[in-house]
Amino acid sequence: MTKTQVIIEVCCPNCGAQAQKTILDNKIVQTSCPKCDYLLISCLHTGKVVEAYAPGLIFTPHS
């Protein structure tokens, strides 16, 4: 089974620096920034977040 990987250069949604969006096996999307340590891993098909870390952003759950 061949694993595919597509890497796209994007702007970090947290700090605006150059970040990488990686699409793995046409299933998982990982966006990461080496400058501010931003990380978002989500499902390509559903958009559901698997893991996220965004320094400086405060999480506020919806009521």
What does this structure look like?
- The protein is an all-beta fold.
- It has one domain.
- It is built from no helices and 5 strands.
- It has a 5-stranded antiparallel sheet, with no helix packed on it.
- Strand 3 and strand 4 form a beta hairpin.
- The chain is flat.
- The mean pLDDT is 90.
Q: Main traits of this protein?
A:
five-stranded antiparallel beta sheet, mainly beta, single chain, 63 residues
Category from helices, strands and their pairing: mainly beta
Number of helices: 0
Order of helices and strands: EEEEE
Number of domains: 1
Mean residue pLDDT? 90
Major beta sheet, specifics? 5 strands, antiparallel
In the sheet with the most strands, the strands line up as 1-2-3-4-5
Distance between the termini: 44 Å
Number of DSSP-assigned strands: 5
Spatial shape: flat
User: Which bin fits the share of residues in helices?
Assistant: under 10%
Uncertain stretches of 5 or more adjacent residues: none
Strand content: over 45%
Offer a quick outline of the entry.
The protein has strands at 5-11, 18-24, 28-32, 39-43, 49-53. The chain is mainly beta and 63 residues long. It has a five-stranded antiparallel beta sheet with strand order 1-2-3-4-5, with no helix packed on it.
Itemize the secondary structure elements and their pairings.
Layout: E1 5-11, E2 18-24, E3 28-32, E4 39-43, E5 49-53
